[in-house]
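Example record used in the benchmark description.
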Amino acid sequence: GKLPHSAAVTWVVAGEYLRVLPAPPGTGTGSAALQTNQLRCRLHEVLTLGEVAVCELQPLELPHALVHVNLPTAQLAEHGWVPGSELLLSLPAEGIHIMPLRTA
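Model output (structure tokens):
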């Protein structure tokens, strides 16, 4: 009720709420049902900066979108995630913030 009915909006997710998980077996568009606010993603790019890696994820259902997350380098190694790997991005509702789109 804080925004006008037809207001243009954008959204952000607070980084501390994001969870990157291994994709379940049988991944790919249209396979196994996902939980609410989960996106199947492809690890598009990785820039390793010591113990942290800056990662670019491309949601499979939204190929024009990119999501940037910082992940522990150890997590990438533990799961064998390299560019091209499929994984799951969890976006809990409490971490999603909707804001009016600024036009200026």
